[in-house]
Design a protein that fits this description.
By secondary structure, this protein is an all-beta fold. The protein contains no helices and ten strands.
């Protein structure tokens, strides 16, 4: 049986445990229930461009975590994440992939 999370719109969405995505050379992932017990969101840029992961909570709030060239960053978002997308900065603004 899958766990569900109620949203403000009255919809019950399945609570995802983890997912990952990439956009160009930026990789992003989250894990709502890792073995350590503390949820994590992570982003890595494998090029000479800044990378960012945008993550959205079940209440609709969106936050982001940025990293520099050829580096990774992670954080504890403090609550379960609904979906994420990876973004890259080509110097003229952020280009983001689809939400997943």
């Amino acid at each position: 049986m899958a766990a569900t999370v109620a949203t403000g719109a009255g919809l019950a969405l399945p609570a995802l445990a983890a997912t990952s995505t990439s956009h160009y050379t930026v990789q992003a992932q989250f894990d709502n229930n890792p073995g350590s017990g503390a949820s994590r969101v992570w982003v890595y840029s494998g090029s000479n461009n800044n990378g960012r992961v945008e993550y959205q909570f079940y209440d609709g709030t969106t936050r982001s975590l940025q990293t520099g060239w050829h580096t990774a960053s992670s954080t504890d978002p403090g609550q379960d994440i609904w979906r994420i997308r990876a973004c890259i900065d080509f110097g003229s603004g952020w280009d983001c992939g689809d939400w997943t």
